[in-house]
Write a structure and sequence with these properties.
homodimer; 340 residues; alpha/beta; 6-stranded mixed beta sheet; 41% helix; DNA-binding
Chain lengths: 340, 340
DNA sequence: TGACGGCTGCAAAACGTTTTGCATATAGTG
DNA sequence: CACTATATGCAAAACGTTTTGCAGCCGTCA
């Protein structure tokens, strides 16, 4: 392992002082040194493969150029990847790196990890959840600029970003109404979470707008899983007055709806149209026919969180904001006009 | 934001020198200071909420306590989460933190990210791929201790860890044979990758062991996707001498096999048994009936990689090793004895 | 009583940067 | 030619640790 080359080596090789090298390389201060010298120093630095030690510069500048990302159940959800990628892309574009920790549901461990992040002098922290929820962030975060990702904080002093759940429900209804459906049911998640309330509210609002009432018996809630969706769909689709279209809380429940339809001898989309939420490629692309679904903007939320954090770091007085990011429709083949 | 408390503040508050505080807190050197003093210093440090600045100690010790994890397509695969979690858990248990970067398929970007990691003085790097493959690692990694994760390197000087693909195929065959099947087909991935070769070889070896030949026409390769699995299964299951059991390259292809079976009026597992590989909860748990499948040990591989890296850091002369981790069977309901 | 050894604890240097203040050299002006 | 203004580069301090070498103090033993 070639022993590391430091700024002193560059100075020696270029025949100038350490100061001059630092200035020459610093963009902001390079005006203080002769253009020809700058050129020369850069060449020498390049030849030597010099790369500044960020530990040292972080120490000196009180700015580590590291952002912490603390998340919960990264393992059990397929969304984590997109969120991390969005955050990392944004960070990388601005010369920052991401330190990722996750602690499952263990609060004590989470606080410990946050302290570890702080010891490494992270410049700020993204506090991420894997599904939209209301959280109260650990108190150790008081000491660090923080953005809440895919959740809202009880502390309004923290900026946050969540999907536009209402809009997702609204767009799904629009899609089905535009296809000509009138008898549309929703298979909701039984949990008391913003996504369930928001999607239902948006869905209902859009139907209202079109003069279509959503009858109570056309909203059935189940466990948020394929099995839960299957049971709910079995119920709805075996009624005498069955709906011609189903809006499902998520793609997993929509997968259950497909299974129920198949079991009852109904075809998607000829006999029943289905719309999901999440755009899990694995499911939405895998189902046959492909599932039209509202994509959850995990990548964009990750990006937004980092950008916002960097902005607040730059400008500590910037107002805190609470962003909702739209959920675009991804059309596949699960929606068709109702028969007859 | 309360201004940070440093070791000097602790020393002042405790009425001793900075050195003494450092020694008292250092476990290894705490013998150099009176036990009562140690006690006192620890108390004061606790009261003040002192936490050592790792940037500074890293600079001084030439040991950042940071590990880099560079991966490719974290977004598009659901495995990334488990791999990262495994790595992070192991790192955290040993007082290290993980810096995660991913670069999609952009090699230039990847090298850039690796250099960024190096600037932050990571102690070592995990070079991870999202599916088992042969790689030649970027040359910048020559300068840092590196472990290859879910891939093998053309450079044998790098330790690596992959799933036991052969074993997965072997166990799958064992399961089906034990259930009484004789006419068993494999739906393989058409790509020229270790997983495809390994699983097929293991599968074939186990059948051989039981005196069952795997006829060439019972190995059909398709695109690694639900659609690819569907087509292959459609082919296999509509033959006059159709197989009674299908071993699928992965869970997505198995999902396609379910669809094909459904389409042909065959039931799983009564008419055809199915086994997958991956144990993607989303699919394996979501399918109806649940899919029996060989779990890919992503969590364990992540763990192993970090542990091995830490070990090589500790002990640079440790021999490099190339590990295969077993793929345990996760039984659900997709296997039953053949009819008649 | 004097010397020696063992405990304690301290001062200072080092890790690799960045930046301020100052010194020198050069050019510009009356 | 004297003097000022400007351009260029350097030395040194600081960021917060860790660790080596040394000094003071105490007790012990001859």
């Amino acid at each position: 392992m070639a022993t590391k080359v430091n700024i002193r080596d560059v100075a020696k090789a270029a025949g100038v002082s350490v100061t001059t090298v630092s200035h020459a390389l610093s963009e902001a201060h390079s005006s203080r040194v002769n253009a020809r010298t700058v050129e020369h120093i850069k060449a020498v630095a390049g030849d030597l493969g010099y790369a500044p030690n960020r530990l040292a510069s972080g120490l000196r500048n009180q700015r580590s150029q590291i952002l912490g990302l603390v998340s919960d159940e990264i393992t059990t959800t397929p969304f984590a990847g997109a969120m991390i990628q969005g955050a990392q892309d944004a960070a990388s574009e601005h010369g920052h790196l991401l330190m990722v920790v996750n602690s499952g549901l263990d609060n004590e461990l989470e606080r410990q990890e946050i302290r570890a992040l702080q010891q490494h002098q992270v410049d700020g922290i993204i506090f991420a959840r894997m599904f939209n929820q209301q959280v109260s962030v650990p108190e150790e975060l008081r000491a660090v600029p923080t953005i809440v990702l895919d959740a809202t904080s009880d502390n309004p002093g923290l900026s946050s970003v969540v999907p536009d759940e209402f809009g997702a429900g609204d767009s799904a209804a629009e899609l089905l109404v535009a296809a000509g459906h009138r008898r549309i049911a929703m298979i909701n998640n039984e949990d008391d979470i913003p996504a369930a309330h928001g999607r239902l509210a948006g869905f209902r609002a859009a139907l209202d707008r079109h003069g279509l009432r959503l009858p109570e018996e056309f909203v059935v809630a189940g466990h948020s899983s394929t099995a839960g969706g299957r049971e709910a769909a079995l119920d709805l689709l075996s009624r005498p007055e069955r709906p011609t279209a189903l809006f499902c809380f998520n793609d997993q429940m929509a997968m259950g709806a497909y299974q129920a339809a198949g079991h009852l001898g109904l075809r998607v989309p000829e006999d029943v149209s289905v719309v999901g939420v999440d755009n899990l490629e694995l499911i939405a692309d895998g189902l046959w026919p492909g599932l039209s679904t509202m994509a959850l903007p995990h990548y964009e939320m990750g990006r937004w969180a980092v950008l916002k954090l960097l902005n607040e770091l730059e400008n500590p007085e910037a107002p805190r904001t609470h962003e909702k990011i739209p959920c675009p429709l991804v059309e596949r083949q699960s929606v068709a006009p109702p028969k007859g």
